[in-house]
């Protein structure tokens, strides 16, 4: 084949490749700003109007509600909790893509609840037994936990006060602290020990259900 023939073949191949590339699906370059705008538009379709600065806190609030609902309804045999788990994973993935701080998956919510129980049990001097407790107001309203208390034969009760972590404010500089809940005198007919806020919490306070950091601890 002559040099001229070779050049013609190469030219034809290049033209064919250019034509083929033009028919491939276009993959847009990722843009955080575009992704935030797309998120705002998606919520607008559902009737929730957000500005760009409000996306972070709104997604965090959705994760908080799903986590608290999960911790409330996981005790019901006839209640499907899979949707909460899928929602938590979806929000965690979206927040990661948008560059926001992480929120927990369902597995991490359960791990967090187990750690609260273990910390409380470690502070009890003597035999420990588990009780079902429910927070009826404040940031953790509705949440039901299996919580330890001092074992006293056939009786006993969980601690008089339970403290749980909270946060407030935006994602850049959130406030951190604890909410103190005080136990009622008697359990309900269902065996739940009810807890009410023992003191005021900052406005906008929400649960601070932490997620593991890269070293395996909880942030």
Task: Describe this entry's structure for a reader.
The chain has 219 residues and is α+β, with helices and mostly antiparallel strands. Helices cover 40% and strands 19% of the residues. The protein is built from five helices and seven strands, in the order H-H-H-H-H-E-E-E-E-E-E-E. It has helices at residues 3-22, 32-45, 55-73, 82-98, 106-122, and strands at 128-135, 144-150, 157-158, 161-168, 175-183, 192-197, 206-207. A seven-stranded mixed β-sheet has the order 3-2-1-6-5-4-7. The protein is elongated. The chain starts with a helix and ends in a 12-residue tail after the last strand. Residues 6-12 and 17-21 have low confidence and may be disordered.
Outline:
Helices cover 40% and strands 19% of the residues.
Q: Would you spell out the secondary-structure blueprint of this structure?
A:
Layout: H1 3-22, H2 32-45, H3 55-73, H4 82-98, H5 106-122, E1 128-135, E2 144-150, E3 157-158, E4 161-168, E5 175-183, E6 192-197, E7 206-207
Parallel strand pairs: 1-6
Antiparallel strand pairs: 1-2, 2-3, 4-5, 4-7, 5-6
Number of strands: 7
Given the helix and strand composition, which structural class is it?
Answer: alpha+beta
Strand content: 15-25%
Helical segment count = 5
Terminal Cα separation, in Å?
A: 68 Å
What is the C-alpha radius of gyration, as a whole number of Å?
A: 26 Å
The unreliable regions are 6-12, 17-21
């Amino acid at each position: 084949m002559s040099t001229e023939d070779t050049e013609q073949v190469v030219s034809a191949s290049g033209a064919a490749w250019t034509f083929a590339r033009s028919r491939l699906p276009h993959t847009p370059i990722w843009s955080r700003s575009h992704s935030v705008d797309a998120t705002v538009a998606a919520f607008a379709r559902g009737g929730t109007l957000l500005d760009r600065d409000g996306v972070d806190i709104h997604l965090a609030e959705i994760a908080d509600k799903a986590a608290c609902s999960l911790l409330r309804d996981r005790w019901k045999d006839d209640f499907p909790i899979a949707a909460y788990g899928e929602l938590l994973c979806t929000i965690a993935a979206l927040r990661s893509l948008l560059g926001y701080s992480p929120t927990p998956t369902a597995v991490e919510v359960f791990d967090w609840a187990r750690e609260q129980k273990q910390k409380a049990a470690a502070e009890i001097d003597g035999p420990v037994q588990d009780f079902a407790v429910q927070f009826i107001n404040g940031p953790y309203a509705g949440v039901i936990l299996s919580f330890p208390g001092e074992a006293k034969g056939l009786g006993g009760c969980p601690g008089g006060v339970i403290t749980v972590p909270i946060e407030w404010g935006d994602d850049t500089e959130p406030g951190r602290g604890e909410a103190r809940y005080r136990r009622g005198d008697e359990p309900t007919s269902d065996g739940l020990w009810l807890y009410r806020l023992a003191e005021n919490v900052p406005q906008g306070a929400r649960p601070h259900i932490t997620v593991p950091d890269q070293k395996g601890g909880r942030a």
